[in-house]
Design brief:
The protein is an all-alpha fold. It is built from seven helices and no strands.
């Protein structure tokens, strides 16, 4: 319900939304999925994809190298996907706009190496926006 809300989130709704990385981790843990070799690093991606290099992320306020590589990679992918996807409160932005946003956050919020890796993959046609994927169907 919160993710589809068209208006600004209340403080309570925003606090609850910020807990979703922990909910994902708890789901994996409760269902024994953390023990599977295939998913051994997935908890870090789930728990850390909203952490920021400058420590202003959530849920744990990790900074820099405290954030795993998989967490830093998924953070960049998550921002790209969020910005280029339609939301109830705004239309999708272009890939070019998303890359501008990613580069603006590189070094402070996002890992610059991960940002540039996404840009290279995008230039090679390996990363598509939601609209580009739908157009291929």
């Amino acid at each position: 319900r919160v993710l589809k809300k068209r208006s600004r989130l209340s403080d309570s709704e925003f606090r609850n939304m910020r807990k979703h990385p922990l909910y994902g981790y708890e789901f994996l843990k409760e269902n024994g999925l953390l023990d599977l070799e295939l998913l051994s690093d997935s908890w870090q991606a789930l728990a850390q994809h909203h952490e920021r290099l400058d420590g202003r992320g959530y849920p744990a306020g990790l900074r820099g190298e405290e954030i795993s590589l998989i967490g830093r990679i998924v953070a960049v992918a998550d921002v790209f996907d969020a910005v280029t996807s339609d939301r109830p409160y705004r239309p999708a932005m272009s890939a070019e706009q998303a890359i501008t946003i990613l580069r603006a956050g590189a070094g402070t919020e996002l890992d610059p190496t991960c940002v540039e890796a996404l840009v290279v993959a995008r230039d090679k046609g390996a990363i598509l926006t939601q609209h580009e994927r739908q157009a291929q169907l």
